[in-house]
């Protein structure tokens, strides 16, 4: 999937992946896509809840044994 900005939050535990995501979303325009890489298993639940609460769209989640990659589309203002 194509994306506009990437954040590598590997090795970080909650709440740091979400905080990095929030900061990066503030740096991109509406409808752009942010790719976030995380190794925290709790981030799956965290990013689902974050998107539901903020209105951003979780487009895709890819996972391997220990890595989770999220693609989040920034909501329109």
Which key features would you list for this structure?
single chain; alpha+beta; 2 helices; Translation Initiation Factor IF3; globular; 77 residues
Q: Can you describe what's shown?
A:
There is one protein chain. The chain is α+β, with helices and mostly antiparallel strands. The protein has one domain (5-73): Translation Initiation Factor IF3 (2-Layer Sandwich), CATH 3.30.110.40. Helix content is 30%, strand content 31%. The chain has helices spanning 16-26, 43-54, and strands at residues 5-9, 33-38, 57-63, 68-73. A four-stranded mixed beta sheet has the order 1-2-4-3, covered by helices on one side. A hairpin with a 4-residue loop joins strand 3 (57-63) and strand 4 (68-73). The mean pLDDT is 97.
Summarize the structure.
The chain has 77 residues and is an alpha+beta fold. The chain has helices spanning 16-26, 43-54; strands at residues 5-9, 33-38, 57-63, 68-73.
Q: Which runs of at least 5 residues are low in confidence (pLDDT < 50)? A: none
Kindly report how far apart the N and C termini lie.
23 Å
CATH class category: Alpha Beta
Please give the radius of gyration in angstroms: 11 Å
- Strand percentage lies at 25-35%
Query: What is the total tally of β strands?
Result: 4
Q: Topology as H/E string?
A: EHEHEE
The overall pLDDT, averaged over residues, is 97
CATH topology: Translation Initiation Factor IF3
How does CATH name the architecture? 2-Layer Sandwich
Which descriptor suits the 3D outline?
A: globular
CATH superfamily: TusA-like domain
Count of folded domains:
1
The main sheet orders its strands as 1-2-4-3
Biggest β-sheet: count, sense, barrel? 4 strands, mixed
Structural class: alpha+beta
């Amino acid at each position: 999937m194509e994306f506009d900005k990437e954040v590598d939050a590997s090795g970080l535990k909650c709440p740091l992946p979400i905080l990095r995501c929030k900061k990066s979303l503030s740096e991109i325009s509406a409808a752009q896509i942010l790719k976030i890489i995380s190794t925290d298993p709790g981030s799956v639940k965290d990013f689902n809840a974050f998107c539901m609460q903020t209105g951003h769209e979780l487009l895709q989640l890819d996972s391997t044994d220990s890595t989770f990659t999220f693609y989040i589309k920034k909501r329109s203002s």
